[in-house]
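Same chain as my last thread, 271 residues:
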Amino acid sequence: MSEEKKEVTLYQSLKNELATDKASLPKDLNVERFANNALAVLNGNEDLQEFYKKNGGSQIVAGLMKGAYLGLDFMSQEAYLVPFGKTLNFMKSYTGAIKLCKKYSIRPLKDIYAKLVREGDDYQIEIINNEPKITFKPKPFNDGKIQGAFAVALFEDGGIQYEEMSLKELEKVRSCSKQSSGAVWNKWTEQMYLKTILHRLCKRVEIDFDNAEQYKYFNEEMEIETDVKAQAKADVEANANQQNFDAEEVIDVDAESGEVIGEQQSMFEEG
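reply #2:
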């Protein structure tokens, strides 16, 4: 089958899916433009072309449909399809996450954003009269070591919500990702930090989507970034081979609270 024939088949498959699931798509989605932009992105991405040759187009169409359900445009880099072995991962970009929060937040948003904090920046958070006050004065042209990141949601009613994460916390999230050492994290580390803290904040912004598909795909990529148990497991795996210990030193710790469960006990001792 020729390359041209493959492209036509993939394009038609996407158009068929868009037509079939029309009721689940955002009402303001320009279906024709979305499909054309998606095909243009595929034609310009050698990694996706190679993935298509090896694995066919079903995962590509499924990934593109996730973007369609959310109303995210691949050409505008609001979302990406990232090959990982035989699996194709759908990822929202930082700008895509902002777009969705602003569009679907029940409490109208004036603005929402995330910033990296580097050595030399002036970053402070104070609670005054039960309201947070954030001071951030970045050092001009600062390329110092990243200390962490924060994200802020400013509501039209004057309210504010925020999240902050240290570099250690950001790297813990990275370690939970299947692509922690892949091209996305390696090439766009800073952007991934920003998206991580923004996603953490997005979990606190009440979102009212139109249907279940939108909720599913909006939250799909964010779960590892807010899953305490998954991050605790990553901590254990990361430190498992860094030091020697005796069997008597093994204890059971609750992943969420960090508290010791029961008596200190050998892993070989009968319960």
